[in-house]
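ok here's Division plane positioning ATPase MipZ:
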Amino acid sequence: MAHIIVVGNEKGGSGKSTTSMHVATALARMGHRVGGLDLDVRQRSFGRYLENRAAFAAREGLDLPMPVIGQLAPGNDPLSPALSALEAECDFILLDCPGSHTQLSQMAHTVADTLLTPMNDSFVDFDLLARLTPEGKVLGPSIYAEMVWMARQMRAEAGAGPIDWLVLRNRLGTQAMHNKRKVGGALATLSKRIGFRVAPGFSERVIFRELFPRGLTLLDLKDLGTEQLSMSNIAARQELRDLIVTLNLPGVEAAF
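and the structure:
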């Protein structure tokens, strides 16, 4: 069966779709068969990213590694048939969840083999995972963390494997080092309490926003004739490589 990667949280603006696209494309470039499914039926950022990529490649005559675009099925259970269709031809299936709580997103968490939760590196986004006192003491898990716990319980009852949950520190800045240390310390403490791993994320970079209209990722730049990458782009590629290594997916090495 395909290994299912779910990218989700219940807060918008954390870089879920950018993360989804770069992970899916990196796996495709490494020779894996990858499916992508956007569960945000309104905004569809990940779905449009994939469609932009297909359109750009066709227009420019480029043979870009391309995840298979999945489609939700009509009816009361739109997810299961969509997953079954993708599993027939994919090694990995990546599900991008909306930045809010929906029944579809909740269903996706119960089928996740790997759960990747991007968050902006601040205590505003930390509230997604746990409630804190003004002094920084953890009072208890948030509603989202409780939902992940319920998904784990459901998988255990069904005899499925555990969820490998990673929290991705996204949009790391070069300033506010004191705040970064405090957030990092709080995440390290919380990870032991509610059971997730902390993963390296992406720094804030303009190029991520520039690539979206063409459906491109950092790994596609040389296919466009860009021989000399800027230091920022080289650093961003290394961030992606570090993320792929940390995910520790079956049969995957960061060979790009």
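+1. The domain at 3-247 is CATH 3.40.50.300 (Rossmann fold).
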